[in-house]
Every structure is written in structure tokens, then in C-alpha cells.
Amino acid sequence: MRKLLPLLLCFLAFAAPRLYGQGGAKYPVTFSGTEGGSVRVTVVSPWAALTSGDLVVAGSDLSVFGEPNTGYQLDYWEINGMRSETTDYSLSIEDVQSALSIVAHFKKAPAEGYPVHFSITGEGSLRASYPSPDFFGSQTEIQDGAHVPAGTRVTFELTPQNGKAIGDWTIDGKKMSSMYGKKTLTYTVISETTLSAEIVDPVYHQITFDDSDGVSVSASDQLWNVYSSGASVLKGTNISFRANVEEDYLLDHWEVNGNVYPHKSSKTSIDLPSNEQYAR
């Protein structure tokens, strides 16, 4: 008999995974492009190319590609009738749980491209570059105010100095909260773009988590540094929590500071950035 896990885990406060079973629901996925391009959608696993209107099993992960014709560029994505702020030509949609409608809006690309403005506050340096069209694997560095072709993926790299840390990234006046503390940011330019980055004093948050009957929890960062419950972690560090589940148990979901994170049967871990202070 399958058992439920009363596991408590804290990420800067409190969290808990539980157990669930898979459902068999299926949902339609429709997609199209306006004049000037097309859209291609595939299921991640098992891989399959979709035709607009096909059904996918609940929980499926999808890869979406906007493909402009020559002389055109992506204008914006429309997902379930709502305009998306992402500028990337490819999207990852995880854990489909309802009908999905995707429209890529295209427009003519200006021959001169778009200017990119960037600046930094604090003690450090900021570098910007994009893949060189002439030499595979090399980067073309740009200066503040330089023009780049529409659709160019520009990578910005921050280097703090004198013991400082990386803070917020802001693009066109909007803070990219998920990028706090990240050394690099890659952004697809589809209009005139203004980016700023800040160097700040280091801030540390605490993570706490507990084992329970039938499961143990481990935590590590992207460099495979292992953390114990109660450890202090630099704000912005991505922490991966893994549930080591014993036989006869199934993981249902993760609960972090009272918020439930949906779980897929193929995954027993959850990645969370330590970019907020949570209260227990």
C-alpha cells in the first residue's frame, strides 16, 4: 500500500512534500503565427511534434518556437489571450494542466536594428556581447548605445569588486526579480532596450528543512555545494532540494512557506532561488 509522506521542509522558513497519483486528462494545444512567421511546438518527453489542435496529456512539458520569415521579427507572444512580456523566440511551457492557445505576433524588422543601452551602479563592471555571425563560438562585444539586429540574444555579464555582491537587474524599468544575484543575463532584443544592474553589499538568508518518515531531504547549489538545515546562503543563490523517497512512497507536491508547488511523478526535486526573506 502506498503511504503518504508528512515531510516538513523549510526554505528560508517552511516547506513540505506530499504524495499524489497521476491523472489521465488530455488538453488541446492550438498555435499559430501572424503574417511574417510561423510557430512550431513539440512535446519534451516522449518527444513529439504537434499539429495545432492536438491533445497532450496533463503534466506535459512543451517547447515552443517562433520562426520569423526573412525580414521579419517577433513582436510579442500571446498566450491564452494574454500578452506575454518574454522576448525570446523559444518558450518552455511546463506541466500543462488546461487547454493552451499560443499566438506569435510578427512584424517587419528595421534594417538598422535596435540600440541597446546599459549601465551599472556600485563597485564593479558590466560587459555586453552577442554571438559573432562570422566566427562560430566567438562573441562580439558592444558598447553602451550600440545597435544590434532584431532578435539578437545579448549576454550581459556583471563582475562585482571589493567583496560586493550582485543585486537586481532592471530591463526597460522593470526589475527582473528571478535574476537577483545572477552573474549573467541573456536577453533577446526586439525593440530599443535599456538595462541597468546593481552591485550591493552581500545579504544572506537561512534555509531550514526536516526529514520525515519515509523520506529524507538534501539541499545543494549549482556548484554542488551541500547545505545543512539552518545554513546561511547568499541571497540569489539557486538551491535544489531533493526528496530521497523510500520504497512504497510517492511524492505528491512540495509546500514552501505555505505555498504548494505542483509535482510531476518524474521529478523528486525542486529548485528555488533564495531571493526573498520568508517568515516562518
Any overview of this molecule?
The chain has strands spanning 9-10, 15-19, 26-33, 37-43, 48-49, 54-57, 62-68, 72-79, 82-83, 90-93, 100-108, 114-121, 124-131, 139-142, 147-148, 152-160, 165-171, 174-175, 184-189, 193-200, 204-209, 215-221, 226-227, 231-234, 238-245, 252-256, 259-262, 269-273. 0% of the residues lie in helices and 55% in strands. A hairpin with a 2-residue loop joins strand 17 and strand 18 (174-175). It is mostly beta strands and 280 residues long.
Structural class: mainly beta
Number of strands: 28
How much of the sequence lies in strands comes to over 45%
Kindly report the oligomeric state of this protein.
single chain
In DSSP terms (H or I, runs of 4 or more residues), the helix count works out at: 0
Low-pLDDT sequence parts: 1-22, 276-280
Distance between the termini: 33 Å
Radius of gyration: 22 Å
Mean pLDDT: 87
Provide the helix percentage: under 10%
The largest sheet has its strands arranged as 6-3-11-8-9
H-E order: EEEEEEEEEEEEEEEEEEEEEEEEEEEE
Principal-axis shape:
flat
Largest sheet: 5 strands, mixed
